[in-house]
Design brief:
Blueprint lengths: L4 E7 L2 E13 L5 E5 L5 E2 L6 H10 L6 H7 L7 H13 L17 H6 L11 H14 L12 H14 L5 E4 L5 E6 H13 L3 H12 L1 H4 L5 H8 L4 E5 L3 E5 L5 E6 L7 H11 L15 E3 L2 E7 L6
Antiparallel strand pairs: 1-2, 1-11, 2-3, 2-9, 4-6, 5-6, 7-8, 8-9, 10-11
């Protein structure tokens, strides 16, 4: 199946590039209300998995809440506030930075990257998740060595939670960029899971949603799409993933999942805004134009154009 064009890059009135992909809107019961492209074949959601992984960790005894739980769900920018809290969580658990299985990296936040002398594991955007994984192992009495292996008890518990939330079997298990297991399932399953997290009345899913809503900066960082979306839209739970993935949901259980075929992310924010408008959400509080800006000579000369979504 060839996915449709979901976004056009328009420069000086001329369509310069296009992005094909798939988008699904699910209702409160997890059923597809709008489907563009192939929304049933498995994809790697990348970091959009993180809120679901956090549910699994809470069920296994993690015990995080509030800011700490938001950081467990984060692809943080590596700003000083992010790194400081990760180090504090490691110290509180009697752990060291070298215990993290995620690779050393520079911050995503450009000013912070310029200030960094060398790449560090705590600066890697997934360090909050890995710190939570190690902490879960300690509290559950599991070995911390090899915690990132798919057959480790921690990852088995996380996989079970992901399969339950998506209401699908995991189609494939790979290795994410941070070294942790990565689970493949459909875009519809991803949206369904986010709808369940965002509308959960209680329990671990409710804890995850509450933490992300209360601390959007910890989930992303300055100028990041997830942070801006959750700050502007009351009750939204949003988490992007690498390779052109975006997922979010509203408290009523309506949810959206997007995957851009070519793996770039620039179409995700305009499509997210279009999907929110489709759901009747006021997006006027977003800090940047939802259509994106194409520059020429340092000034705006075009936009990323997405279709108006209709049922």
């Amino acid at each position: 199946m060839t996915n449709p064009v979901l976004a056009e890059v328009v420069r000086s009135g001329f369509v310069e590039s296009v992005h094909r992909g798939a988008l699904v809107v699910t209702g409160p019961e997890g059923e597809a209300r709008l489907a563009l492209g192939d929304v049933t074949s498995p994809v790697f959601p990348r970091s959009s998995n993180k809120p679901l992984q956090a549910v699994g960790m809470l069920r296994a005894g993690l015990g995080f809440d509030g800011e700490d739980l938001a950081l467990a769900c984060a692809s943080h920018s590596g700003e000083p506030g992010h790194v400081k809290r990760v180090l504090e969580l490691l110290e509180a658990a009697g752990l060291h930075e070298d215990d993290l299985a995620c690779p050393p990296d520079f911050p995503l936040h450009v000013p912070s990257m310029r200030d960094a002398a060398e790449p560090r594991r705590v600066m890697m955007n997934c360090s909050g998740k890995h710190t939570a994984m190690l902490t879960t192992c300690l509290r559950a009495g599991w070995p911390t060595s090899g915690y990132e292996a798919p057959d480790h008890p921690l990852q088995q518990e996380i996989a079970a939670a992901v399969a339950e939330l998506t209401a699908e079997p995991i189609a494939h298990t790979g290795v994410d960029g941070c070294g942790a297991p990565l689970f493949a399932f459909s875009l519809t399953g991803l949206a369904r899971a986010f709808g369940r997290v965002a509308s959960a009345p209680d329990g671990p899913a409710r804890q995850v949603a509450t933490a992300m809503r209360a601390h959007p900066w910890l989930v992303g960082g300055t100028g990041r799409e997830d942070t801006d979306l959750m700050s502007a839209v009351d009750g939204l739970v949003s988490k992007a993933g690498a390779e052109g993935v975006q997922a979010f949901a509203l408290p009523d259980g309506f949810a959206v999942a997007i995957k851009i075929d070519d793996g770039t992310k620039r179409a995700c924010a305009p499509l997210a805004v279009a999907a929110l408008r489709y759901l009747g959400v006021d997006v006027s509080g977003l800090p940047e134009p939802p259509t994106g800006t194409i520059l020429g000579g340092g000034r705006p000369v075009g936009e990323i154009r997405v279709p108006e979504l209709r049922g």
